[in-house]
Amino acid sequence: MGSRSVNRVLITKSRAVSLSLTAVMVAAIYSFTPVTRGQSAHRANEQGSPGDPYPNMPLIAPIGVRIGKYMDVPASSQGAAIDPAKGYRLQNLGNGLYMVTDNAIQSMFLVYDRGVVVIDVPQNLAAYIPQAIAEVSDQPITHIIYSHSHADHIGGAKALGGHPTIIAHEETLRLLKRDADPNRPLPTVTFADKYTLHVGQQVLELSYHGNGHEPGNIFISAPAQRVLMVVDVVFPGWMPWRRFALAQDIPGYFAHVEEIGKMDWDTFVGGHVARTGTHADVDVQIDFDRDVKAAAKMALATTEFGVGLNPVDKENPWAFFDNYIDRVAAQCVNTLTPKWSPKLAGFDVYVWDQCYSMEQTLRIE
Ligand SMILES: [Zn+2]
User: Fold this and answer.
1) Phi, psi of 142 (to 5 degrees)
2) Ligand 1 centre from 184 Cα, in Å?
């Protein structure tokens, strides 16, 4: 409450300043001081001074407001420490499969008798992946698999060198042709629905489940190791990145999370955050997705249009909806905060983003 009282004081002060400015301007006009066209146009293009916060404004700071400190990251959301001398961590997932991470982004590699298959080459890990491979194998990289087209996950592919076979979904090829980024070489093998890679005694099963995060984002299963990798969909222990990790199709994204929960595996690799995931982590995210949907649905149904809108803005439909959607999002954040703020790392960082994108998808999709 302390900071809010301070806000009120600041708002009151800024109002006082703007009132006295208005008085000065009125006085200027009536004393025939020349007022240029530029000055009056400038006034028309200024917003009014900030108003009072919406009623029942959440204590979680809204987007665009700087705060002193975010909520603590629960210990259960953290991963094993990174050796600062190495800069990365190698996690043995069993049977020749490994995860490489800097505790922010993740990739994998699979060792077989005559080579190594690398799955995603994040820009930030490109320099570490050859070192990580050298810890366990002296075989060359023969294949790269792209989980999807985004540069943060495959932008280090060129830097690995050599001429590996690059396998990806056909939509990833389409997007990479458009992006024309020399750091992300085009796939040499593509598929539409399913692709099974046999190398030596090792097997990887790739499959496509439609658009969620973006077209071409695939599921990568290592059946012998009982590992599933799906990137940018489930974030073990964490709130998803903003706007459901920038999902291009939110209903499709929600379906992917549920599908991951139904599949048979022991270890989940999500491509981000510090640690691998379990079925319990996926269940938490399914529960969160359902709660955001229910909270936004309830807020949409119970929020009245136009309440508190300045009557001079009533012919501005964008302003009209901004006022409505802000109040819907605020109610959604309030509904979610008691249960989820202690449960998910980064809840306070992105909950407003999730509520804004949820109300939007519920209204139009
Ligand atoms: Zn992505």
Assistant:
1) -105, -25
2) 14
